[in-house]
Structure formats: C-alpha cells, structure tokens
Amino acid sequence: MDVVLLSRIQFAFTIAFHYIFPPLSIGLGIFLVMMEGMYLKTKKKLYEQMTRFWVRIFALTFAMGVASGIVMEFQFGTNWSAYSRFVGDVFGSALAAEGVFAFFLESGFLAILVFGWNRVGPKVHFLATVLVAFGSIFSAVWIVIANSWQQTPAGYHLVGEGANVRAEITDFWQLVFNPSSMERLSHVLSGCWLAGATLVMSVSAYYLIKNKHVEFAKASLKMGIAVAAVASLLQLATGHLSADGVAENQPAKLAAFEGHYEASAPGDMYLFGWVDEATEQVKYGVRIPGMLSWLVHFDSSEPVTGLRSFAEEDRPPVNAVFQSYHLMIVIGMALIAISFGAAFFLWRGRLYGMKWFLWMLVLAVLLPQAANQLGWLSAELGRQPWAVYNLLRTSDAVSPILSAQQAWFSLIMFILVYALLFALFIFLLDNKIRTGPTGLEDETSTYEYTKRGVESLPLDGRKGKT
Amino acid sequence: MELTFSLNTAWFALIGVLFIGYAILDGFDLGVGALHLLGRTDDERRVILNSIGPVWDGNEVWLITGGGALFAAFPHVYATAFSGFYTAFILLLLVLIFRAVAIEFRSKRKSRTWRSMWDTAFSLSSMVIALLAGVALGNVVQGVPIGPDKEYAGDFLRLINPYALLVGVTTLSLFVMHGSIYLILKTEGDLQGRIRGWAKKAVGAFIVLYIVLTAVTLTTVPHMTERFRDVPALLILPVLTVLAIANIPREVTHAREFRAFLSSGATIAGLLALFGIGLYPTILISSTAAEFSLNIYNAASSERTLRIMLIIAAIGMPFVLAYTISIYWVFRGKVKLESMSY
Questions:
Q1: Which residue range(s) make up the domain with B281?
Q2: Is the pLDDT of residue A212 over 90?
C-alpha cells in the first residue's frame, strides 16, 4: 500500500474512533444541564442523584475524547503536511478560536463539574455544568466550520504557484458562514444529541428490565425519550437541508449518494441498491423515479447533474458513498420510529412493562453511533478525490517525506493502542452502569489489598484511612 | 511592512507565552507523575495523583492550544516539524494517551496488580513526556537539516544526540523539582516530610544539570547567544533567571514553599524566554544552509489571518486567564480524598 492510502486509513481510523466520544459528551451535556437545572429548581434528591450519575459517565466519555482528540490535531502535521501548508492560513482562525473559546472552557470547568461538588455552591456548580456543555458545543462549531470549508471553500484566494500555492483568507465571516457550515453543523449537533439521548435511554431501560434503581431509571428515560424524539426529527430536517446544499455545492457527491450517472437527466431515489461502477448502473435496487429531482428542485422531471459530467479521476468511490449514505438514512428513520414509539407507549402508560421494547431501547444506543460514522463516511468519501473540494487533491495533500514504513508503524500502533483503549472504555462504562446511581458512596473510599500484596507494603496499617 | 513585522513578532511571542504556560502548568503535573512511585501506600499515591486530579486536563490544553496556534500562525513550521519528526511525535502522542488513560483508570479497580500497573504507566509516561519535550527543544536549538523545499531531510535517530539528551534530562529534573515543590503545598504530615527530602535532592540535581547545560550551550551552540551581544539590555533576563534559580533552595530550606513554587515557575518562564530570544526571528534553524531556515516571515500565515487571530486571542485570553486562576483558587489547599477522586 502506498503512503496516501495508509495515511487515509490511519486518519479514517483515528477520527472514527475519536468520533465515538464527542457526540456522547455533547449529547450528555444537555442532559446534565436539564437534570441539574431540575435539581436546583425542585431540590429533589432524585435529580441530584441523576446529575451525579450522568456526570460520571460524561467524565469518562470526555476523557476518552481528549485522549483520542490530541492525535487529531497533530495528525494534520504528521501525515498531511502539504495539506497543512495549503490550508494553514484559513484554518488558523478557526483553530485559534476553538482552542481559546472552547477547549479551555470545557476542560477548566470540567474540573469543577467532576471534582467541585464539595468546593463550590450549587449555583456555581450549575454554572460550571452549563459552561462545559456550551464549551463542548463550541468545539463542534469550529471543527465543523473547518471541515465545511474543505467541502465548500469560501472567503479565500489562492496565493503562490505550483507546489507553493496556498489558500489565504480574504473574509473571516465568509469562512465561518461558508455555504455548507451551518446546515452541516445543525446536522452534526442533532446527531450528537441523539447519541446522548439513546445512551440515557439505553441505561435507563436496562435498569427497568433488571428492576433496579427504578425511580431513577423512569425519570432518566422520560428525558431521554423527549430529547430523542426532538433530535430525530431535527436530524431528518437538517439532513434534508444538508443534502440540498450538497446538490448545489458538490454535485459529484450528490450523484454518488444515489448512484446517478447520466449527465443530465431526472434523478431517481433508491431505497437500496448496489452500484456496479464498471457498468455505471445501480443493480438490485428499488427506486422511486424522479424522487431525487423532486427533493432537490420540487419537480420530478428537472435534470440533476450526474457522475458522467465529471472526468473519471474526479469522481468519488460511488458504491461506498451510496451504501454509507443509504444505511445512514435507514438508521435515521429507524431512530424516528423508535423514539416516537417509545413516546407513544410512555403516553399510553405501557412502556415500563414492555420488556421487548425496553430491550430495543437498550440496543438503540448503537444506532446513532453507526449513523454518525456512516454519515461522516459518506460526507468525506463523497468529497474524494479532493482533500479541499476542487482545490487540492488528497494525493497531493500527504506529507511528501513520509515513508510507507513509518506510516505502517504508526497505523499498527494506533490500532493496538486504540483496541486497548476501547476495551478499557467498555469495561469502565459497564462498571459505572453496574455500580449504578446509588453505589457512589462506597466506591473508592477504601482500598483492599489482595492477599499477595500485603507484606510488600510497609505502611499498610494505614489502609482504609482517607 | 512595519505592521507585518509587529504581527509576526507578536505571534512568535504569543506562542511563546502558550508554551511557557504549558511548561509551568503541565511541568508540575509531569513532575508529580515522575515522583508518583515514591508514594509508599495506596493512600499516599492517591494523594499524589489527586494533587493534580482536577487540573492536569486543563494544563494539557495549553499544549493543544500552543500546537493549534503554531499551525495557524506558522503553518510551515508546524508542517515541517510534525512530518519531519514523524516517529518521535507518534511516540509522544501514544505516551500522552497512555498517561491520560493511566490517570483515569488506576483507581477504578481495587486490585493491587491493576493499580501498580497503572501507577507505573503514569509515572513512566510522565517522565518520557518531560524527556521528549527537552529532546525536542535541544534539537531546535542545534538546528535540523531542512532543505530548500522546507522539508526535513534527516531521520529519527538523528534526533537522539548527546546535546538533545542533556536538554531532555535537564528538563526532567526541572519538572521534578517544580512538581515536588507543588506536592509539598498539597500534602501534609508524614508524606509531606518525605517530599521535602525529595525536593531538596531535585533542586540539587537541577542546579548541577543547569550549570552543565549552560556551559555546553555557550561553547557548542554559540548562535543562541548572538542576540544578547547585539542587544546587551536583554542580559537582564539571564540575570533574573539565575536569581530565580538561586532563590529556590533558599525558599525550600526555609519551608516557604509557595515562594519556592513561584521561583521555579519563574525559572521555567525565564529559561524558555531565553530560548525564544536566542532563536528569534528564526523558529526552525536549518543546519543545511541558513537561507533554508524557517523564520517568522517565510513560515507565517498572511497578515490578515495573524490579525484576525490576534483579535480572537485578545478577546479570549483574558477569559482563559480568569478561569484558570479561579479554578486553581477553587481547588487550593491540601488534597482531600473524596468519592469522586481518582
């Protein structure tokens, strides 16, 4: 494999792994604000218990996000130095804003959120919770702006020639509000809220099935369902907006979404199918004729630009984009059905007794995770062969001095370390869920030496003293 | 042109401030990590770990923001250094991950094997990060082979050389000293008494290494002192740094740890400022040919970007400082182990 492919695999792998966690933090963030807000308002012990429990889950996802996030920032330089030289001037402002406005806010007030219970008053603690929740959203804002600029560059001009050409900023606000940034941001954020909401639903449903922490579980589940219902609809609406934007700004990507080859003909929408890139046809598909044209132009006979309008070397990998896009949509629809199903059964008063449905909610936590990954996959693969759309090819973006040997080394290291990290994350998440909201007090205050270790610790008479 | 000059210099200085902030803040928590295994019981180790519990994450943000600012203000330096020192940076990233994981996970199970495994990981990774940071500085001081295409033209092993290792070991001793003084402030009783002993040894080790490093630097990399010959007024800085260093053993002996901590913080700031002034206006010295060096002009972003970022920094940094200080204020005083502690 060549350096470009290895670097792409490494970037995809590390960002996909990283992206398990920030959506959970962003999603749980609004739950913490709601729960602690309810606690301040009602002074009910239950809401305090809920806040404390979910803070512990939040802290875990946040720590994983930080550990895997540092890699992302440095990887632009290590593997994509040509890209870094090209975009540095444009990304500069967005990155500076992210560091100064978001990272310090999040990580600083996280300390008070997690460790500050006995050190600040309830109102200050609530303020910290709100600031951490906002901080996590701010990070998403700036990073999505930067990524959107790669999809739909705006507010820049090109300076220099040949290998020294780079984009320089001409208008900061055009960069911030580039043609795709706001619709993509809204789509990303509702995906994050869904990720958080399904985690809350999943854990609560599990407690209900096991008949543990019932009061806690019911209250958490209600909040989870409310957020999931709203977010799943928002996801549909913002998804439509994003697709409209893609149609306008990245026609090759839109054509790949639906395997639409003909240069200028009405576009169909597929429910599913398999794109044969050799014959340029969608096989085994079920389609709604003219639906793509209708969604884009509100007229099923309007032509939509097809892949044949683009030279072959300018087309994305069609079938991979098609499949990830369609799977994402199927999952999104399933999430709407599940959220509203849950809301319906809750309203009818039947939900807590329906074990099969509760089990479905337990497993539903995986759906937004899958949809988020697939959505990004279709967005980023759909941008290919460009690193910066129509400006910089991915093959020209890689570090020129990187050797395949170095790239193999780092890829293998990341896979090994992340496998360990993921195992630990699941282990700890499971541990926290088993400990539950009431098991907090006795968790870490004493230390029990295993028999093997007692004699080698000279001061173990002090054990248990905290 | 006058404006460009001041903007580029301003960003050189600002990135310097971010790295100084990182070195002072993460410096003590890396030092605490390096000392962690000296805790004899689990409670002692938990006290040591929790002395940095609420703040280590925020401290690391200074590195992330410094790296981001470097990318933004001097993209060519960022691109050349990170792709050139590929293997070193990948190792650094893995060690940073390991350290974060070790802090998060060590107290999650009550098994002794589990905890001592993570304790070792935490301590070793802290030492390696301090060492690598110093090795990186050492290489920047000496210069690295950079070609006309702005790309690094050396290999990984070239980065491991005697001078760089000396800077690495000195950095480690500086952080251990800084961390041990911080620990005295956060502990009490028995443990505090023993840490006082560690601090004295660390101060001694650092001063010896500092003298050796200064002598070697003056004789083998004279280009770092040129600026001081041109502008003698700048000599006040090394004088102040030496005074700060000399003040550390004095304050430690008189058990005035807060003042000692301020002095070791000032030492870190002074040494990094000397390093920055020695380099200025170059950032990455090319050992191949001087004209291939990356400096604050040929490696910089456009004037417009530097100006926008300066506005962002001017709005944001006062907030950052305000809540950094308030968070340290909230968590002032001795460590108390609680149910949410590590």
A1: 2-330
A2: no
A279–B contact, CB cutoff 8 A: no
E strand or H helix at A286, and its extent?
strand A281-288
Q: How far is B253 from chain A (nearest CA, A)?
A: 28
Tens digit of each residue's pLDDT (9 = 90 or more) over A327-359: 999 999 999 999 999 999 989 888 888 889 999
Residue A406 has pLDDT above 80, yes or no: yes
**Strand partners for A386:** A393
Amino acid in position B152: Y
Q: Is residue B337 part of a domain?
A: no
| For chain B, percent of residues with pLDDT exceeding 70 | 99
Task: Write out the two tokens for A372.
Answer: 């988020």
- In whole angstroms, give the CA distance from residue A39 to residue B300: 50
CB atoms within 10 A of CB B73: 30
CB A236 within 8 A of CB A332: yes
Do B50 and B183 touch, CB atoms closer than 8 A? no
Residue with tokens 């108390």: B336
Query: Would you say residue B338 lies in a domain?
Result: no
Residue B336 within a domain? no
Residue A169: CB atoms within 10 Å: 22
Task: Find the closest chain B residue to A117 by CA distance.
Answer: B340
> Closest Cα partner for A194 from A76, A357, A31, A16?
A31
- Chain B positions in Cβ-Cβ contact with residue A409 (cut-off 8 Å): 87, 90
The pLDDT of residue A439: 58
| The predicted structure's pLDDT at residue A463 | 39
Q: What does the alpha-carbon distance between residue A116 and residue A135 come to, in Å, rounded to a whole number?
A: 18
Distance CA(A147)–CA(A91), nearest Å, equals 9
Interface mutation target, options A11, A93, A412, A421, chain B, most CBs of B under 10 Å: A93
- In chain A, residues with a C-beta closer than 8 Å to the C-beta of B323 are 104-105, 108-109
E-strand spans in A170-234?
A: none
Structural domain count of chain B? 1
Residue B163, C-beta contacts closer than 8 angstroms, at least 6 positions apart: B138, B141, B142, B216, B220, B221
Task: Give the Cα separation of A104 and A110 in Å (integer).
Answer: 10
pLDDT digits (tens, 9 = 90+) for B153-197: 888 788 889 999 999 999 999 999 999 999 999 998 888 899 999
- Please report the pLDDT score of residue A36 as a whole number: 94
Burial of B223 (0-12, 13-18, 19+ CB in 10 A): middle
Please tell me which of A187-191, B243-247, B334-338 the model is most confident about, judged by mean pLDDT: A187-191
The radius of gyration of chain A from alpha carbons, rounded to an integer in Å, stands at 24
Q: How many CB atoms lie within 10 A of CB A289?
A: 12
What's the pLDDT at A460?
A: 38
A459 touches chain B (CB under 8 A): yes
**What percentage of chain B carries pLDDT values higher than 90?**
38
Please list, in sequence order, all residues whose beta carbon lies within 8 angstroms of the beta carbon of residue B222, skipping any fewer than 6 positions away: none
